[in-house]
Amino acid sequence: MTLRTLDDLGDVAGSRVFVRADLNVPLDAGAVADDARIVATLPTIRELRERGASIVLASHLGRPKGEVLEDLRLGPVGARLAELIGEPVSTLAETAPSVLPDEPVVLLENLRFDPGEEANDPSFAGRLAELADAYVDDAFGAAHRSHASVSALPELMLASGRPSVAGRLMQREVEVLSRLLHDPERPYVAILGGAKVSDKLAVIESLIDRVDVLLIGGAMAFTLIAADGGETGTSLCERERFDEVRAARARARERGVLVEVPQDVVAAAEISAKADRRTVPAAEIPRGMMGLDIGPKTVEEYARIIADAKTILWNGPMGVFELEPFSAGTRGVATAVAHADAFSVVGGGDSLLAVKKAELADAFDHLSTGGGASLEFLEGRSLPGITILEDHP
Question: How far apart are CA 291 and CA 353, in angstroms?
């Protein structure tokens, strides 16, 4: 897959460029709590500014569902961006104004305040198209959404002879994930965690065709364990998915793919840092207790497998890592991946937060900004925000 990129944009000096970014960052008391996604798009913003372009920056924030919500305004994002780039950012109160201020960097209001964004409304896209001479998509995290700023807008720009290209973040994400999808060095180990196996079934089925080992953690593991007859106490378990997980594991065996589930877990009666806890076999969790982290034997076994890998994909924590008593499993896996002599990619908001919390971010080859988009890409799906940017001969 080859994308049109900033290299194909031509001379943009004096032009206004619409940059769709993913600035969907957490806010705390009216300030940006984690600026990782803002930092990730800085190379694109800086390059365009250095090339003499002015920028119309646009993003969504949260899920306002077409309503204007004061706590989801982009003002704090604009303030943080201005600090990072060292020049003023004019944050507007409208999503698609008819007139723009004559400023070098303008940030539109939360795109999802307008119902036309999620509806992929051509008229809303048309109003956005009037704001710029070219389009750059740097929002990989939204590439799987058929939304106006991701799909209809670049189509309109191209139809009118205005370029639509990928930013540096989008370009890097596609290059890295394409390597995992088409040409991974082996052994290829995928580590999946999170709460519900139903959220990851499609990617599990896809990865079975591509990986050598699949390591499962988090609450989603209990559906696999229970489907094999294990006792999982009050752990989250999707019994309606038993047939599907059994079929997936059977196909993995046919293909010679090792699927590992936890041997032991740290269990407690409730999700609380103060709850009494103990380490028990993962398939023998006592009644009234739930598994909240993978145990030390599992960490040791997973680390042994990870150490032999040449390609590693990690998406999803191993437990309730936000609470210190249940963070050792996720931290242990993060450390193992960081120390492996492998090409390592981590994606998903919780996994990225865990890596950052463990101060290991610099040890990974790529931190993917797109959770759902990354997984859908690795399933081999066609993502609307990427398809429109492909460079066809």
Answer: 21
Return the bridge partners of 390, or none.
3
Q: Which residues pair with 366 in a beta bridge?
A: 345
| Angstrom distance (rounded) from CA 163 to CA 142 | 20
Three-state DSSP class for 120? coil
Of the candidates 364, 362, 382, the one whose C-alpha atom is nearest the C-alpha of residue 373 is 382
What gap in Å lies between CA 347 and CA 352, rounded to an integer?
6
d(CA 16, CA 134): 7
**Token reading at 158:** 């191209």
Q: At what angle do helices 371-378 and 168-182 cross, to 10 degrees?
A: 40
Nearest-10 Cα torsion for 81, 348, 142, 163: 70
Per residue in 204-231, pLDDT (tens digit) is 999 999 999 999 999 999 999 999 999 9
CA 46 to chain centre: 23
Q: What is the pTM of this model?
A: 0.90
Cα 373 to the center of its chain, rounded Å: 6
**Gap between the Cα atoms of 245 and 44, Å rounded:** 42
- Identity of the amino acid at 6: L
By annotation, the residues acting in catalysis are 37, 196, 349, 372
DSSP 3-state of 265? strand
